[in-house]
Amino acid sequence: MGRPQKRPLFSNSHGLGSTHCYYESLIPALTASPNNIRCVTFDVIGSGISDLPQGDQSVQTLSDDVIDVLAALKIEKAVLVGHSFGGIVAAHLAATKSNVIIAAILIGPVLPNPNLEKVFGGRAQTVEKEGMEAMGNTLPVQATGSKSTPLQHAFIRALLMSQKPQGYISLCRVVASATPPDYESIKIPILIIAGNEDKSAPMEACEEIFRRIGGEEKRMTVLQGVGHWHCVEAPDQVVTKIVEFYREIQ
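User: That's the sequence. What structure does it adopt?
Assistant: Structure tokens below.
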């Protein structure tokens, strides 16, 4: 008999104002039989229980952090899942580190554009003056879709309120200054999961990212009534789409 195949490994990178807990609603289904997918989740530097950054952060430093986490765990190949600005990081690594990242799933990926400097620069200023309460009081409802529930809003608020203001501000500046990844150089399999009521990663932006991706093995799926917190608002649908994609690319 030949050597048994290693279980697939998914590395999950969260978005702004979130933590590794963003993916917790997916992990039981992904790791259970028959999927048997290993999952690595972590708090981006500046978020959750991770340390505050020691210097300026950027898409490149966040990308380096992902590769460092995989290297520390002796993981040679992984499917990278990135939400929101994590979708920028995932796309960047898909374009530049295809020797490590063998496929990527972009959930509500933000498309860098000049307007982000005003939006996220403004968020940074608000948090500097008012703290995370300003985000916790607004984003859970503003950034979710029409099918979201009060319980989901409460969970999102808890994620936001767990942030250190300095870390959140640093990551706001990453988004504000981000430039588009080299989407055209991406040749690995890509799945984009979009929400049709997502204001942070609107449909037209997700469609533009999809159009720019250079590889032929790409898919895009749209969740109805879902805003920007896909894994909180519609975890069962997200799991189904992820598993379908992974099976298709085997």
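Residues 1-5 have pLDDT under 50 and may be disordered.
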